[in-house]
Amino acid sequence: MRIPDQDFRRHIETLEDQLLSPYAARSTQSRGRERPLPDCPVRTAFIRDRDRIIHCKSFRRLKHKTQVFLSPVGDHYRTRLTHTLEVNQIARTIARGLRLNEDLTEAIALGHDLGHTPFGHAGETVLNELVPGGFEHNQQSLRVVEKLENGGKGLNLTFEVRDGIVNHKKSGNPSTLEGAVVSLADRIAYINHDIDDAVRAGVLHPSDIPESCNRAFGRTHGERINSLILDVLQQSFGEPHVRMSGEVEQQFDKLRTFMFENVYTNKEAKKEESKGMHVVSELFKYYLKHIALLPPEFTMNLDADGPERVAADYIACMSDRYAITDFCRLFVPKEWV
Questions:
Q1: Inside any domain, residue 143
Q2: What confidence score (pLDDT) does residue 70 get?
Q3: pLDDT tens digit string along 231-255?
Q4: DSSP letter string, 140-160
Q5: Which residue did the predictor score with more confidence, 272 or 232?
Q6: Contacts within 8 Å (CB) and 24+ apart, 1-4
Q7: Is residue 315 part of a domain?
Q8: Residue 320: is its pLDDT beyond 80?
Q9: What's 35's domain CATH number?
Q10: Does residue 178 lie in a domain region?
């Protein structure tokens, strides 16, 4: 069957109506964008959002931002980008199983961590202490897509994608099931891949993992993810919610607590974090005093948001390597020639 050029998007929208769960978000029923756009002849609104995120600068910078281990030596440790891709894979698998909108799910997953600082949560902690009103990476991710990207114009994404991005933390309350899927997939992804990285780094041994968690999920990376996804599908198919069973959630919370006690606050794993925090702190203080040095897409927000927020915007956009390079340029003396 040949589809007329002008009907590609409509064909996808028709398939959404025919195939998706009654609880799924439809692209034709989106609450829209802050600035209306003419319809694309090929892509639905959510596919278009996904493409805008993939092609933006903030997405590319994720490849050089810390996940857990700061600037690790070795090719196989996760970065913020590979974390995002793993969240996307898990979220799409769950969305497909529940007959939810995979395109919306993917757009939220790919955009959920765009606002992360250099040096992971260590950088976030510093800015949260220095910026009036605090700093949270989910709020910053929303700020990136609404205000900072595209030369200060933002990406002009649909409400559903922006809502899913800002509500992806466990404490969030997304308005779509697709947003709830990404929130759960984020936790499934980082707990499991951080176990993998911690074992690779010698911080954990597989025998350290609580035996009750091994019995509940399996002993390998793939077994754990598969078990968690299957439980979510069994508990949520055909229902207006996305959740784990009580027993599995209890064991998952136990595994998460184990990771916080043994990896996320481990002195050996985090021994370089204080240096990263110092870099972020000193860069913030410097640019707060020299705010006029920032690019126009940042300084254009001075009147509305104040210098502290604008300085934080600039630093949060940095990759780890750029932050280190900039710190050395500003504070490390060069040899006189």
A1: yes
A2: 67
A3: 999 999 999 999 999 999 999 999 9
A4: HHHHIIIIIHHHHT-----HH
A5: 232
A6: none
A7: no
A8: yes
A9: 1.10.3210.10
A10: yes
